[in-house]
Amino acid sequence: MRLSTGSTGKFYAQIRNGAPFDVLLAADHDTPQRLAEEKRAPGAPFTYAIGKLVLWSPQTGLVDGEGKVLATGAFKRLAMANPKLAPYGRAAEQAMQKLGVRAALEGRIVMGESIAQAFQFVASGNAELGFVALSQLRQSAPPGGSAWLVPQSHYAPIRQDAVLLAHGEANQAAREFLEFLRSSAARGLIARYGYELP
């Protein structure tokens, strides 16, 4: 089985244009549902994880425990995923709106195509801080730094759904992978990487 990573929005466009994917693990709920409604996914989508948004910086002490750094403006660049392409970007947008800081940060935002690219902007120093997924910090963040786990009341739940695509309907490995994703072993791994379980 080969894996491709990227933004949910881009994968949706590729699938609609005939890309030969067997399974989609989306970072949202709507995209797999839309594919099912469009008859591009024969199976019913199911939620495999609920993502958590974090404001993170590799710099110790920059991000406080309430995200007040966003209002103080003690930074030049803030990374986030593009809300038009990535569910974590939509969540970041909602969180900033909830905090009343979105308009003030307009000129400082560095937009990545995906949550992975937003993470790279911060990890590489191209942005001092950024909205990333908790799972990324558990996997890839260097030691130290500072972070604020954004309260889930600040954004709509990031329900991440999986679905069997039409191209993979006859692929037994694709079906078995989706079955594994529902297993207690997989759920344990998902929780360990910082996701909430459905």
What does this protein structure show overall?
- It is a single chain.
- With 198 residues, the chain is α/β, with parallel strands linked by helices.
- It has helices at residues 8-16, 30-37, 69-72, 87-99, 115-123, 134-140, 172-181, 184-192, and strands at residues 23-25, 46-51, 53-57, 78-81, 109-112, 129-133, 146-149, 158-164.
- It has two domains: 8-50 and 157-192, Periplasmic binding protein-like II (D-Maltodextrin-Binding Protein, domain 2, 3-Layer(aba) Sandwich); 51-154, D-Maltodextrin-Binding Protein, domain 2 (3-Layer(aba) Sandwich), CATH 3.40.190.
- It is built from eight helices and eight strands.
- The strands form two sheets. A five-stranded mixed sheet has the order 5-4-6-3-7, sandwiched between helices. Strands 1-8-2 form a three-stranded antiparallel sheet, sandwiched between helices.
- The longest helix is centred in the middle third of the chain and has 13 residues, at 87-99.
- The two termini are 26 Å apart.
Chain-wise SSE layout:
Blueprint lengths: L7 H9 L6 E3 L4 H8 L8 E6 L1 E5 L11 H4 L5 E4 L5 H13 L9 E4 L2 H9 L5 E5 H7 L5 E4 L8 E7 L7 H10 L2 H9 L6
Parallel strand pairs: 4-5, 4-6
Antiparallel strand pairs: 1-8, 2-8, 3-6, 3-7
